[in-house]
Structure formats: structure tokens, C-alpha cells
Amino acid sequence: MSVFGTGLRRICGVAAASTAQELTKLVGLAVKETPTVELRLDWLRDDSERTKFLDWLKRKKFKSVTFIATCRRRTGGGELAGNAEAELYWLMRARDAGCQWCDLEVETLRELPQQSVRGYAVPSKVMLSMHDFRGTPKVLKKVSLPFAGGCDAVKIAAMSQTIADSGRLLKVARESKQLVAVPMGEVGLPARILGLREGSALAYAPVAAATAPGQVGLLELKKLYRAHELTRKTAVYGVIGNPIGHSLSPLMHNTGYVAERRDAVFLPFLVERLKDFLQIIPQFGVRGFSVTLPHKESVFRELDDCEVLAQKIGAINTVTVRHDGSLYGSNTDYLGVLRALEKKIALRGKRVLIFGAGGAARAAAFAVATAGAEVLVCARREQAARSLAKAVKGGVVNRASLRREKFDVIVNATPVGMHPQDGISPLAPGELNCSFVFDLVYRPMQTKLLRMAAAKGLQTISGVEMFVAQGIAQWEGWMKQKAPEAEMRKAVMGALKAKEHKLR
Description:
Elements: E1 11-15, H1 20-33, E2 36-40, H2 47-60, E3 66-70, H3 84-97, E4 101-105, H4 106-109, E5 125-132, E6 153-159, H5 163-175, E7 179-184, H6 189-198, E8 203-206, H7 218-224, E9 235-241, H8 249-260, E10 264-270, H9 274-284, E11 286-291, E12 305-306, H10 308-313, E13 318-321, E14 327-330, H11 333-342, E15 351-355, H12 359-370, E16 374-378, H13 382-391, E17 395-396, E18 409-412, E19 436-439, H14 448-455, E20 459-461, H15 463-479, H16 485-503
Parallel strand pairs: 1-2, 1-8, 2-3, 3-4, 4-5, 5-6, 6-7, 9-10, 9-11, 12-14, 15-16, 15-18, 16-17, 18-19, 19-20
Antiparallel strand pairs: 11-13, 13-14
Helix pairs in contact: 1-2, 2-3, 5-6, 8-15, 8-16, 11-12, 11-15
């Protein structure tokens, strides 16, 4: 059992603010979600604010809450400008205020007599922390206690330059007792979420502002990812891409798992080199993953088998890891396009323009062709446009002809207009000679293209519809049951509306 306890006690809410007043509010929020809270005293802007806060904490006398006092110096990656004596002073004050634990970085320990914290009136439990903000060093294969300086736990926080780095750190956690493993950076985020499952004594999550790269918020870590409930039996899924931080797939899929009480988790993997991710599949226990840019086409070379339609489309957005470890590729983007359109219009016999010729365009073209529509392709790359048109037995339309041609549906399958370049449109108002405009871009929900179309009195379809539909198809394919579509859609729509409101 972890020295911090079991279950929710292993999720540590990190409270960090510049003023005592702000910090007291964050502590109040934290203790509602978890009984373990780290107090970043170094973030307080001066000694006066630290005194105010610790006086408040002493008066408050929280019951059944474990407080970890941290006053990290700048030499250890913190905000405290003072020396080792200043850090120890505030940790001793924290003990007087009721903190049971303190976090002492290794740089400070090395400056102490006999390199031991014993003899100082700091909190009775001491965690020795080591931070490397540049990369993951070749750490020990196993960390055992008692460790240096009479410490009760050891924390290793290291920047993950590759997924393999984060996996290596988790292996140390699995073999050690009372080790807190913290893979830092966006690349290390999935391993941070899986840390408790792998044996890390704690998982850190900020209550508000992030205090380290790649952190997941407290509410997300607890309620969406359920990090404290994950076990080696938990089915791991994810989305791979670069960039990946904008993806709403983790929110959508995990919302479905929570609603249906499935023992599964969906993680965002920032992947630069595809082979790096494929190598950690067995260690992380990945059973399936969604594929986004730039890997939709390159993943083909790594597959053991593939559905016929995905082979024709020439792009993969879904990979299932079979029991024997082999990879099976499929494409649910075309289902997303088809379901979004067929809610609005019967496609058979209709004239549909696909604007673009990339992976998304190919999925859209095959979708509407399968439904019996006449497909025409217009793209900047003429050869790609001709190739796609031939594959779906359609035709090619050059850009100059768009103002004269008429269509039932125009589908934008390019990324033009996607946030943060949401002030531009791939097409001009005079080129929108149709009844429906469908933009596969879903951030923002109402792109400039869709706003122009609406202003002309045309019917519009947001890319959110396609995004949700393709995700539902993935979820159901992996879970072998009907997805809680209403809950998943609500989560995605809520997140998009919140983001757009924040940008106004």
C-alpha cells in the first residue's frame, strides 16, 4: 500500500497562487475533491502572503486531509528566491500550521549538514524530490527506502522527450515502493494518468493553474480519467497525432466510459515518430487508437490487416490491437460524414462537391459515392483531385468553374478555417451555389464558411456532427455495445461552446 493510502488519497490536488486569499480558495476547492493536497508556498509572492496563509491554515484545522508543504527554490525549478535556510524556515512554519508532509528537493538536501533533514523541525514525513526539466535521465531500475537523508518517499519528475522516456519512468515506479513518478511534458501526459496504475505513490493535478508542463486538471484526472480507479485490467485506448492537445476525443470517449461504467480509459498521445508509439503498446496495454494528422496514411505500413473500404479510401483513422498484438486498421471518418449528411438530405442522385483531396476528402468522397451521389472533386493539387475522382467514379471541377456550377451539397474537406485561423474561408460566397454547405472543420463550430453560407440562406452542417458520429462509431466498434450518444455529444458541444466563449 502507498504511504499516502489507497484510492482517492493517491490523487494530490496542487494548490498554487500568488496571494494568501487566492490560495485559501483553491484549498477549499481541492479538499472537496481529494483528501491529499500539495501547498505550493513558493508561489506566494512574498513572505507576508506566506505568513497570512499559514496562519489561516493553522486556525482552520482541517480534519482527514493530508497536506504536503512545498516551498521549492528556483534552483530546483520553483519560485522561491531565497536560499536553503529560507526554504527550511517555511517548511518548519508549515509543520506548525498542521502540514504532515513536506517536499524537499535534492539540491537542498545536498546543502545540509550530513545531507540529512533529520534534526530540523519540518513536517514529520519528508518526500525527496528530483526534477529534470530537460529530459529523462537513466534513472535507477529500482528506488528503495530508506533513502538518502532519512526521507519517507522519493519523487522523480522528468521531462519526457519521447513516449519511451515516460514508459521507462513508469517501470521504475512498478518496481519500487513509495516512489512518486511524474513524467512531465505533453508527451508524458498519458503516462502521468497511468502512473497510479503502475505503482506511483501519488498523481499530481492542479486545482487551477498548472505548475508543471503536461499536467491534467484535478477534476479531469479524478472524474474524466478516473486515475485512482485504473488497474492493469483497464482497457487503454487513445488518439495519436501531432499536435494533439486540441483533440476532444479523450473527452468524448471517456464521457462514454463513465456513463456506461466501462473499465476503460482514452488518452491523448503526442506522437512525432509513429514507431515510438507502437513500441509502447504492450507496456501501456493499448487495445485501440484513433489516428489523426500526420499519421493517417503512414500508419498503413504498420498494419497487419485492414478493412477493404479503408484500403480503398487510402487513409486510416482507427486501429484495433487484436489479442495476438496484430494491428487491424479501419476508417470511421466516412461513417461520420455519411451519418451527418443523411440526417439532413437523402444523398442518392444528388450532386456533391468535395473541396479538397487529402485523407478527409477521400473519406467524404467514398461516403457520398457509397450512398449513390454523384461526386465531383475540386482541389489545389490537380493530380490528387483526378486520382480521387477516378477512385469514386466521379468528375473533376476546376476552381474557376465553381461560380457557374450548381451542386446539392458542397463539402469542405480542407483544414482552411480551423482555429486559430478561423478568420478565413476556403471558398468565396459566389462559389457557394448549392443547398447545403458541410464544413468538416469543427473548431470553431461555426466557421467563416458556414457563416457566409447562412448569410446566403443556405443550410449548414457543422463538422461537429461528423466528429461526434465518427467517434461514436469507434466507441461502439471497440466496446461492442451502443454508445451513450447523448452524453458524449453534450460533452463535446459543451467544451466547444466554452472554448469559443472564452475566446470572445
